[in-house]
Design a protein that fits this description.
The chain is α/β, with parallel strands linked by helices. The protein has 16 helices and 15 strands. Among the domains are: 215 residues, Rossmann fold, CATH 3.40.50; 154 residues, no CATH class. Helix content is 55%, strand content 20%. A six-stranded antiparallel beta sheet has the order 2-1-4-5-6-7.
Length: 540
């Protein structure tokens, strides 16, 4: 339930906090005091549309925050969920659930399971035909749960088979065209006989060939310097040290070191000489390497950035070719499995349909009894179960709520009821019957009493009170007979200060509630209206 609602800068509301309670919460008060703005704020926090014209004059943003007590919800912290929405005059939105930023659509989707708002112009959930089947199934209860579970596990596999069958590459011409393309690509890669890191080695060889003249020139200089200069100089130095090596250990050690250097330089000179000899200016060999590199780069442009990726793509080609060549066999097996699943689903659907038809009659009778209590004696509502030709997640049925509000009139969809008063009572009749199975706990009504009075108004009040036994109900009303049913009555008023209008909300005690009922009953608080208010309150 909504435990606290905080509203800032919406219309004439500057900053108010309302602590709601379980049961029947009634909002009454002066005309233009901001009652409907409170409902608008609840719509905003539920992800509804918002016009920047609603931002209080002179302010840059509006803010709505609700604390919702819902311990069974996985998002709750200590049983509470904090939802907020801030809207700026430049159109920017900031929506949060327990401090986590979410989109408006995410907020709307989250809140639709917690709050249900109904006003004269709203698309109420009960008027959405796509949800009628879930209402009937919820009403049917345990009888359908097991069957639907069995059906849905089959339906999931059924959908997966259809997806696999849709990948059959179209008709024979399309299949052949695809095979030709795949075989061409496979042949191109196979004929290339690629080897891992081949391109790296070839690139190194190509770089050497491309710079062979410069390499040979410099290696020749190194070779000549080592062979003709360095080795000869070291040799002369060795002979000189040999002449003095017997004069001390230090000279002998240096002689040994110099001889080691001599052998190392000799080895190095031989290596450089060999490297110099290996430098090739063979144009034909360079052309072969360049041609191979071009071939590899061409394959990279088509099939992957590296040789490894190209070879992986080759595996995919082989797998797809195998799949296409065997697609008829694969599809035949899938079609056979699909046919077996369809037979099983059809059997379950027949049982589901039988239960739905039986429960639809029961639900229709209960709703019609409620409509009679709501002074709609001639109204007949029928829950219709239709058969469909294609399986969906709900089976082979479509469910619609149809109604005839007067004798002699044909049945029509709920959305086509013209009278606001009739719409309100039909909705209340359905809500009363479904109250035990309706998963949305908080129900909000904005002036649904429009167009009704007398007995009908009294009946509406009684139904709202009955619904509030299982749900939190918040309603804006102008009728005394409905206000008298409230568990908690709030008075909405306005005052002017410094040429600005401000909304105030006050929870009334019992004496104040009687006075408010008297005021909206006759427009004035008199002894007679007070007595009438007490009688209305007593009956409640």
């Amino acid at each position: 339930m909504i435990s606290t609602l905080h509203i800032k800068n919406i219309g004439i509301i500057e900053d108010i906090i309302i602590d709601f309670n379980e049961g029947f919460n009634v909002l009454t008060g002066e005309t233009g005091a901001g009652k409907s703005l409170i409902i608008n704020a609840l719509n905003i926090i539920s992800g509804g549309r918002f016009s920047k014209e609603m931002i209080r004059n002179g302010e840059k943003n509006s803010f709505v925050e609700a604390s919702i007590y819902c311990p069974e919800n996985p998002h709750s912290v200590d049983g509470n969920i904090i939802v907020s929405r801030e809207i700026y005059i430049n159109g920017r939105n900031s929506c949060k659930i327990n401090g986590r930023l979410v989109t408006v659509n995410e907020l709307k989707e989250f809140m639709q399971d917690l709050i249900d708002i109904h006003g004269q112009q709203d698309n109420y959930n009960l008027l959405d035909e796509t949800k009628h089947i879930s209402y009937l199934d919820d009403f049917a209860g345990k009888e359908l749960i097991k069957l639907k579970s069995e059906y849905y596990s089959l339906f999931e596999r059924y959908c997966n088979i259809n997806k696999e069958l849709s990948k059959n590459y179209g008709d024979d011409k399309e299949k052949e065209r695809r095979l030709d393309l795949l075989n061409y690509e496979l042949k191109e890669i196979t004929n290339a006989k690629l080897k891992i890191n081949e391109d790296i080695k070839l690139q190194e060889e190509h770089n050497i060939m491309k710079n062979s003249e410069k390499l040979q020139e410099n290696l020749h200089i190194v070779d000549d310097s080592l062979s003709n200069q360095a080795i000869e100089s070291i040799s002369i130095s060795i002979r000189s040290l040999e002449k003095i090596s017997n004069f001390g250990n230090q000279y002998e050690e240096k002689l040994s070191e110099l001889k080691n250097i001599y052998y190392e330089v000799q080895e190095l000179a031989r290596d450089i000489s060999i490297m110099n000899d290996e430098i090739s200016f063979d144009e034909e060999e360079r052309d072969v390497i360049e041609k191979r590199l071009d071939e590899i780069y061409s394959l990279k442009r088509k099939y992957g950035n590296t040789i490894e990726e190209i070879l992986l793509y080759k595996e995919k080609l082989e797998n797809e070719i195998n799949e296409i060549e065997n697609v008829d066999e694969i599809n035949n097996k899938l079609k056979q499995e699909k046919q077996e699943i369809e037979q099983k689903m059809l059997k379950i659907c027949n049982n589901i349909t039988a239960i739905r038809i039986e429960k639809a009659k029961e639900l229709s009778n209960l709703i019609n009894k409620e409509l009679s209590d709501l002074e709609m004696y001639n109204a007949v509502l029928r829950v219709e179960v239709e058969n469909k030709n294609e399986f969906d997640r709900n089976g082979l049925n479509k469910v619609k709520f149809l109604i005839s509000t007067n004798k002699g009139e044909e049945e029509k969809e709920l959305t086509k009821i013209a009278s606001g008063g009739e719409m309100s009572r039909v909705m209340l009749g359905i809500k009363t019957v479904l109250a035990d199975v309706d998963k949305v706990y908080t129900l909000i009504f904005d002036e649904i009493d429009t167009g009704i009075s007398g007995k009908a108004a009294k009946a509406v009040g009684e139904k709202l009170r009955k619904i509030s036994n299982n749900h939190q109900v918040i309603i804006v009303t102008h009728l005394a007979s409905i206000a008298a049913k409230g568990n908690y009555n709030y008075f909405i008023s306005k005052n002017i200060k410094n040429d600005k209008t401000y909304t105030k909300v006050r929870l009334l005690n019992e004496e104040e509630t009687i006075k408010e009922i008297a005021r909206i009953s006759t427009g004035d608080i008199t002894k007679t209206s007070l007595e009438h208010a007490k009688e209305l309150r007593k009956v409640s």
